[in-house]
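Hi, here's the filled form for the chain we discussed.

Project: internal
Contact: R.S.
Residues: 318
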Amino acid sequence: MTAPAVGRGPARTGRGGKVKSTASVRHRLAERGIDTSLLMLLPALVFAVALFIYPFSYGIGLTFQPSAAIQEQWGAGIWSNYVAFFRDAFIFDSIYLTMRLALPVALFNVLVSIPVAFKLRHRFRGKKLLTTLLVLPITLGTVLTAQGLLIFAGRQGWLNRFLLQIGLIDEPLQLVNNYWGVMFSLIISGFPFAFLLISSYLSGIDPSIEAAAKTMGANWVQRFRRIILPLLAPGLATTFILTFVLAFSVFPSARLVGDASGETRVMALMAYRAFGELNDFTMASTIAVMMGLVELVVIGVVLVWRSFMYKGSTGGKG
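And the returned structure, exactly as it came back:
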């Protein structure tokens, strides 16, 4: 005798003698290895296509449609925008000016966050208050942060007036409307993100591992270099990447507390200039694409460093 089929719904005979299955669509899809729960990803896929893939693809397409003026000035046909980007020193130098801000800011935020997060791992009086003060700048935003810097550190700000009154300086310090103003703004707005991310990864490292190394005679430097740093490497890489991307795309700070036509002429300002002042949408798209490529190069270098430091799974909760 033939055993009945297991896991299949009942069948019935239709017209023409054909057998029709009464199993649900879900069961029939499951028989073919298709998980219907994947349909829950459909809204996210639609949003990704509508809000990222299509605009990104459209922007790349614009870069190969240079204006007549750009083609006449630089030649090279559909590549005229890219030729203009690399050969126009005013635009091309914005890569260096942006990196000159983003790399030190990201590195500073990560390095300073490590000892602060280590200290706040332990319980002590005032820990919650200190943590709140450290993450408070997140609520301010870049515009309010820039405005606060102008009031506090401007030529007529509180800091300069105080230093002049006590006779410590003879003339006001130039702390804003230059490179340092933008750097201070980026550090203030970016540090809370770095601190929270590193704290999250540190919380996922078992303290007993460090304690075991201590009982075996390892000093603090050895414990950090051989245990904490390799386990923290994925978190450091992720934190650096996120803070770098935030700093690299700086726009309000560079315009409000920087020198928009000089040493803080970042790539975002160049894209805005092409779009808003010159009405050249294709050149603005070219600058935006180049911004993305530069960021991808830096991210790739950081991920390679991470792979050399630690090859296991991430140990943190972040």
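Let me know if anything looks off before we file it.
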